[in-house]
Amino acid sequence: MPLFPDDFAYLRQRVLRRSGLVLESDTHALVETRLTSLVREERLPDIAALVSRLRSLPEGSPLHQRMAEALANHETAFFRDAPVFDALRTTVLPALLAKRVRTRTLRIWCAACAFGQEPYSVAMTLAEAGLLITGWTVRILATDFSTRALVRASEARYDAKEIHRGLTPELRQRYFHQDRDRWRLIEQVRRPVECRPLNLMDDFPLEAPVDLVFLRNVMIYWDVPTRRAVLARVRRMLHADGYLVLGAAEASPLVEDGFTRHLIGQTSWYRPAPASPNASAGSPVADAPRPPHSGATP
């Protein structure tokens, strides 16, 4: 049975409230496809029966959460958008290290981390720079609203298709070991990554501040009010000299969002707007000394 218009409207409203995802009016077929597994898991005859059950339950029920997770896009890969990691390695990371040399502490937040490829790519970048063995305290917080995705992220096990997306053979050999038909990340690189459930629609209960925020390829699914509200929360979490990086296809934060844009190589990074009204937006970040290097680069 196809998805009825009033059922689709109900799903649109509930998903928007729960995850910020805007379901466009022409996505009926996509919604039906993504909810097929949930219909089977609940042993229901069709999607209309699923919506009926959702309507009978409180909005905060586990089934509503599973519905929102099923409709989310968990597409990801290791070192996705390579220029971002080039900029991290050559400019952003050295600049942060120079400012944190006294505390020797670095805190990074990967929001909407899906199955963990992004935070582990960051951890491998830090490992290549020697930061995981040189006495620095490194914490990488990986969050997602999907508890199922976080279970996979915390396991750090990937199948053949996933392990070949974005990883060079050298990095695969250095940081993974094969476990039957899957590859698992080594303990040294898993250790600094903490996986924690967090819904970006809620107030952030994280300890502030953080030095670097990855919020990539998630705001493209939100409407403007949601985007502005989340950016305001992120701004409060970020060090005054910290960095925010978004997906390449996402709209830039505006000055009124509290950020200025900085071009680093082929990528855009955003920093908290300076207090001075005369500070200019968009000025490039000065190059900093490169970190120690210990092998192949991602």
TrEMBL record:
What organism is recorded for this protein? Corallococcus carmarthensis
Identify the enzyme class.
transferase
- In Swiss-Prot or TrEMBL terms, this protein is called protein-glutamate O-methyltransferase
What is the catalytic activity of this protein? L-glutamyl-[protein] + S-adenosyl-L-methionine = [protein]-L-glutamate 5-O-methyl ester + S-adenosyl-L-homocysteine
**Which GO BP terms, alphabetically?**
methylation
Q: What is its EC number?
A: 2.1.1.80
Cite the GO molecular-function annotations of the record: protein-glutamate O-methyltransferase activity
**Amino acid composition bias (Low complexity), ranges on this chain:** 274-284
Keyword list (alphabetical) reads: Methyltransferase, S-adenosyl-L-methionine, Transferase
Which stretches make up the CheR-type methyltransferase domain?
1-251
